[in-house]
Amino acid sequence: MTYTRSSIQEFLTSVPPFDQLSPAALKTISQKVKLLRYRMGQAICVRDKIPDQVAIVYEGQARLLGYDPRTDKPVTLQLLQPGAVLGWVGLVRGVPCETAIASTETICLVLPALEFLTLLKGETAIANAFRNKCSLIEVFELLGEEVHRRAIGNVNLKELALKAQNTAVIKQVFPGQVSFTGADDKHMWFVSGGGAISNAPVGTHLKADDPSLSVQKLEVTGSFPARLIGVRTDVMQNAPTTSNGAVSSKVAQEITTVTEGIGSNGAGQNGAGQNGAGVTSQNGAAVNGALNIADAPDRPREFKQPIYVAEQKDRKDPSDFPYVKGKGDVYGTIACFQMLAKLLNLPFRRDNLERILVAQVSRMGGASLELCGAVSELMGLQAQLATVPVSALGRLEVPALIRWNGSIAILYDVNESSIIVGVPEMGVLQRPTEEFGQSWGEPAEDGSLRAQILLVKKTEHTPQKRFGLSWFLPSIRKYRRVLIEVFLASFFVQLFALANPLMVQVIIDKVINQNSVDTLQVLGSILLVIAIFEAVLTSLRTYLFVDTTNRIDMALGSEIIDHLLRLPLRYFERRPVGELSTRINELENIRSFLTGTALTVVLDALFSVIYIGVMFVYSWFLTLVSLATIPLFVALAFVASPIIRSQLRVKAERNAETQSYLVEVMSGIQTVKAQNMELRSRWQWQRRY
Q1: Helix axes 577-592, 630-667, angle to 10 degrees
Q2: Which of 265, 311, 312, 390 is deepest in the core (most CB within 10 A)?
Q3: Euclidean distance between CA atoms 123 and 130, whole angstroms
Q4: How far is CA 286 from the centre of its chain?
């Protein structure tokens, strides 16, 4: 058969959406396309590369394949007939996704990717047709990730995608912080590609109940609109399962006959084989200007110029990410979690984490991703351990923990060209994705490279900041007026306390030495008045202080109980009752420090200046001798404070264990009595004490 430019142009008039072009534009495209021959089984496009060309099936047929993320095995989605367009989805989304293999010897019209993108810019009708078309492989990939996230194993993903494609809705969200008015309860919205959405990589399910990923308020960065796909909720709720058998005969028939035209259902089925009038004359003579058909390359080439990729992943520099140095299974893993806590703004207790890891690493012989997953759950994160093919490295969600070069590392940022990884022993490194994947993956049974990864994600229950003194400040601020009155009363009580020794000095110097009884009566009256005022102020201060602290205790106690009752059940399953009650009681010590000890410290610091001034008036030499001891006390406090802090922490932990055991014994006292375990229970309590 002979192929000419005129026959190609005539063929394009039957392929939607190219049929919307003017004859002049069709003629231009027909001059730019070339014919390639694909042998049976040869790949036309592959899912790990954005194709450098758009292919239109001219003769023969091809299979469109999807890869189920639960098994990573290929599934035939469609048999593509002449007129089907391949490669456009990856270029429109900016994400590689299509895999198509020639079922028979197939001839395709191929248009270079740059020419295709130029066509989209110049022809509005063509651009709208492609950008408003939802491809089957696109729906299959997005729903596959959602099914995999939900760990639903019995869903027939192929049939689900076929049903969802018919009612799928596409929305373009333009750059900036916008309210997406197209959202409704009838659709599940997924990020499909295009411009980058903050905190929402490709494949993210936008949920109304998640403030950080709300479909109602989106922030699109860069200069390209983001592409959202809406899938009807009822389709997902009534997802077909594998137990329902194979795809229905009607759907199967559609699969075997469908031609994936753009903007029309069933159009474009008049392939080159059916359009012979444009290929040869009626008497079989070839039309002038015959074209040669070249053999397609063994592997499809990749389009390496940025479309949305640079904006899609918001390429970053290693210096943008936190780094904590560490070495070894224990301290290297601690450093990874500290980097993760800094990145996600999480509370971080190094001592608690170190105690857990030391015990577990000594028992297990090393740090594993399973152990890191358990620690992540304790930090309030949602952790998911998965084994992924190295080819999917550029599409993984970050941050994530991996094991690389014999130690735990944190994966900060990934894209198709490079990755950024934080290694405690080496720093924050940037490596080519392909090179890193070769060193990270391990050969699987099927010959592909695979590796384990721990995906971590914040939830609505993840703590956002570390518990500290700021938690008490609102209650203290609420009663600041009364506390200021207590402070002033304490100030005058301290002044009266300073007046006593001064009056005694006057009595010794003036009354006793000069034998002045009249002066003694006056000074005695003054001392009596000072004592009365001091007693009254002390009583008022004590009353105000006790009343205020009781109110603060009531407010904090109510808030603690309210927070405690809203915690999930798994929190109580991991902690004994005695430990919880001990921790709650420790809040009384903190409150006592803030409203008692802290107040005393402020007063002492203020009056120390006054006392030192008075001392200098009496004797500057003796004052300097006294002040010379201050550096010694500071050094002693600097050395002793860590030791005392450690001992107090150990004491608090032992007290929590003891109280926990005592509460459990008292709760089960009937069992203790029935089993005659009183002596054993006392011994166990003493061992803990």
Answers
A1: 150
A2: 312
A3: 11
A4: 63
Distance from C-alpha of 303 to C-alpha of 583, rounded to nearest angstrom: 59
546 Cβ neighbours under 8 A, 6+ residues apart: none
Report the C-alpha gap between 270 and 272 in whole angstroms. 7
Nearest of 47, 53, 108, 117 to residue 80 by alpha carbon: 108
Q: Nearest to residue 382, comparing CAs of 457, 285, 489, 287?
A: 457
Alpha carbon distance 291, 274 (integer Å): 19
Question: Which pLDDT tens digit goes with each residue over 217-244?
Answer: 677 876 788 899 999 888 888 888 875 4
CA distance 324 to 335: 5
pTM of the predicted model as reported, rounded to 2 decimal places = 0.47
Average confidence (pLDDT) over 678-688: 82
544 class by beta-carbon count within 10 Å (0-12 exposed, 13-18 middle, 19+ buried): middle
Q: What pLDDT does residue 154 have?
A: 83
- Please give the structure tokens belonging to residue 56: 């239109």
Concatenated DSSP letters of 590-640: HHHIIIIIHHHHHHHHHHHHHHHHHHHHH-HHHHHHHHTTHHHHHHHHHHH
The four Cα atoms 110, 113, 119, 122 give a dihedral, to 10 degrees, of: -170
Tokens 């990923």 identify what position? 213
Cα 78 to Cα 100: distance, rounded to the nearest angstrom: 9
Element (H, E) at 442: strand 442-443
Compute CA distances 433 → 13, 44, 418, whole Å.
42, 24, 4
Q: How far apart are CA 148 and CA 85, in angstroms?
A: 29
- At residue 210, does pLDDT exceed 70? no
- Helix, strand, coil abundance in the chain, percent, nearest 5: 50, 20, 30
